[in-house]
Amino acid sequence: MKKMVIFGGSGFLGREIIQQALHQNFDVTSISRSGAPEVRESWMNKVCWLKADVFDPSMWREKLVDVDVVIDAIGVLIGDEELYEKMNVLPAKILAKEASTMHVPTFVYISAKSFSEKFLTAYFTSKKEAERAVKFYYPDALIVRPSFMYGKRRKGTTAQAKFIQLAKKIPFVSSKITHLQPQAVEHVAHAIVAKLV
């Protein structure tokens, strides 16, 4: 049985990745600042939930022993440059370094696909910087760049996805959002885990 440690597993994409990994018989440990989600679902009983500070490796380093894959699903979308540095870049540096030190063979980083040169510029820049940090330790890291993700766990995203699809049919609007392709979060998670089996 393969062992997976995911950081940020209680998040929107993180939960879906865990469920897909369980379907593939992974032994999953999720590490986050909140630990186990407050609202429990049956599948969550198969996961080892650890509440820990990503910035303090001494709290979770031992969990990387004999692990096959580490996934960094930590990140914030809305913030300023200081917050992006703290929550998008720094965790990637810490996790990649620690995973490399513990000889974890596979590292996955959840980045983002840039869809505009005018919106969320600092966010996309931080994701690129984090990618470079990861690649320093893992030249062959699996870098995942999803576009806008929608799903039932995040209210309003399905409606937003439909709106984006409609907007893409309007010529003067569609040219500005060419690279914005809504993706079901379940499909993104499935594609990630399929690469790890």
UniProtKB/TrEMBL annotation:
Domain of life: Bacteria
Domain NAD(P)-binding: 8-157
Pfam families in the record: NAD_binding_10
Alphabetical list of InterPro entries matching this protein: ComplexI_NDUFA9_subunit, NAD(P)-bd_dom, NAD(P)-bd_dom_sf
Protein name: NAD(P)-binding domain-containing protein
Record organism: Candidatus Enterococcus willemsii
